[in-house]
Amino acid sequence: MAHPSQLGFQDAASPVMEELLHFHDHALMIVFLISTLVLYIIVAMVSTKLTNKYILDSQEIEIIWTILPAVILILIALPSLRILYLMDEINDPHLTIKAMGHQWYWSYEYTDYADLGFDSYMIPTQDLNPGQFRLLETDHRMVVPVESPIRILVSAEDVLHSWAVPSLGVKMDAVPGRLNQTAFIASHPGVFYGQCSEICGANHSFMPIVVEAVPLNCFENWSSLMLEDASLKS
């Protein structure tokens, strides 16, 4: 998760987020090189009294500074398009979870199970245990198996919301009356935090998202306990 004075992204916890980090570094290096070249040219033109007549009127120079930016744009566009298609691919998900946005909490329904669903509310500051994070902890976490393709169906019941977990590289708008979908694979076990990323009212800042990735056997034990609790309540 993010920490104070952090300059970069959060550590990647999914293959797509790793690709996004690599693309960010790739694009940033190109911007850095362009900025350095432009700064050098400006300083050289201001600091010298000499004039090169071939630069003032040269067909070769004009060809170069027309073609070179096009090549640079291609070098940025091709990796970007590749990642866009990777983010849209959903191949044979092992688990499907429906996330519904409400004012101001999330509800999750594991559609592969008969009766497995719950609401996820933020834990108030006064109820936090030592080591828990203010405004980020929830009373029920969304538990998923690690290294398994997970499909998330995102919608809302009242106003616009947005289901976003930065370390997983996931952000999908929740629109009332519309079902959007996205997918991710948690690369390793851990707890990953996110928040609603669409201004949705007075308590927009108080509807966090907590995804806990666990090994498959732990997930099966958790789902069995949740189903038993649901059957006892019914």
From TrEMBL:
GO annotation, biological process: ATP synthesis coupled electron transport
InterPro entries to which the protein is assigned, alphabetical: CcO_II (IPR045187), CcO_II-like_C (IPR002429), CcO_II_C (IPR034210), Copper_CuA (IPR001505), Cupredoxin (IPR008972), Cyt_c_oxidase_su2 (IPR014222), Cyt_c_oxidase_su2_TM_dom (IPR011759), Cyt_c_oxidase_su2_TM_sf (IPR036257)
Q: Which residues cross the membrane?
A: 27-51, 63-85
Domain Cytochrome oxidase subunit II transmembrane region profile, residue spans:
1-91
Q: Which Pfam families does the record cross-reference, listed alphabetically? A: COX2 (PF00116), COX2_TM (PF02790)
Q: What is its main location?
A: mitochondrion
Q: Which UniProt keywords apply?
A: Copper, Electron transport, Magnesium, Membrane, Metal-binding, Mitochondrion, Mitochondrion inner membrane, Respiratory chain, Translocase, Transmembrane, Transmembrane helix, Transport
Q: Which NCBIfam families match?
A: CoxB (TIGR02866)
* Protein name, per record: Cytochrome c oxidase subunit 2
